[in-house]
Amino acid sequence: MELLLSMLVGIAAGLLVLAVGSGLKQEERVQERLGSYLKDRDQLDDEERARINLRQVLEKVSRVFASYSYTQKLQYDLLQAGIPLKGEEFLTLWGGLAFVLPPLVWLLTFNLPLALLVLVLGAVIPKLYLQGRMEGRRHKLNQQLGDALTVMANALRAGFSFQQAMDTVCRELPPPISEEFGIALREIHLGANLEDALLNMGARAGSEDLDMVISAVLIQRQAGGNLAQILENIAGTIRERARIKGEIKTLTAQGRISGLVIGLLPVGLLFALLIINPGYISTMLDSSLGVILLGIAFGSELLGAFIISRMVKIDY
């Protein structure tokens, strides 16, 4: 265990030195997202100035991860989740929680089981948080899509163009649907054509319902037809799909809650025992039989969670 901890501390220290050294050697550049604040830096209060300085340090350190292929995929996930971070910045924070925080916990408490638990939580919680934000934002966008299509259909019937109808959605509806349409409009104003802007919006949102709307709009632009009527028909279909999804979610609520409780209860109990009585758990970790039993329990947890998730998942 001491050898494993030493290796983790060495890896964490090496990553930090490499990241900081790589970031500090690069030339200073204007921070695109903070430009409006940096112009009047003297007028900012201490809290805002500290936040800007922290963001600059984060961007410098995170440059070491900018070239990774996983960073690009993570960037799309952050866009879908509505988190205002770059992929390399989120990866830097994730690595800090997974490799820097556990050694600090061990140095402060000298509790190796607690440090290992913090390592596991630091490696898992950021990904779970990102997935939760993605699903929540996608669900909210799908709920707003029917109203957005109705607004656009009414605007088209009033004589507006398609881009003006999109602008009406930006002004009349709340985020996240207004944000996505606003980004698409800005791309069009900067020179992108409508088809590319809509396809980019679909890639950012990650919504099957929105993909259906985009496909219908692109087909109508090629084949012709009454776009307002098409949008109204799709809005009715999306509302019916949302109603069915709600009924399915209600019927499977008991199974999902049971799986959540069964999955989190042992982990929560382990965490509580590590804080209240560390010696009780360290007895199991010190013996090979205890480690084997914990491994079997962990595998059984994963298997049970997978089976329950498949039971409550309904394809429609």
Tell me what you see in this structure:
Helices cover 83% and strands 0% of the residues. By secondary structure, the protein is mainly α. The protein folds into three domains: 1-110, no CATH class; 137-250, Up-down Bundle (Receptor-associated Protein), CATH 1.20.81.30; 252-316. Helix 6 (112-157) runs antiparallel to helix 11 and helix 10 packs antiparallel against helix 11 (227-251). The longest helix is centred in the middle third of the chain and has 46 residues, at 112-157. It is globular, with a radius of gyration of 25 Å. Residues 19-34 and 36-41 have low confidence and may be disordered.
Helix proportion range:
over 70%
Number of domains: 3
**What Rg is obtained from the alpha carbons, in whole angstroms?**
25 Å
- Oligomeric status: single chain
Name the CATH class of the largest domain: Mainly Alpha
**Helix/sheet category:** mainly alpha
Q: Between the first and last Cα atoms, what is the distance in angstroms?
A: 48 Å
Uncertain stretches? 19-34, 36-41
Second CATH tier, the architecture of the largest domain: Up-down Bundle
The CATH topology of the largest domain is: Receptor-associated Protein
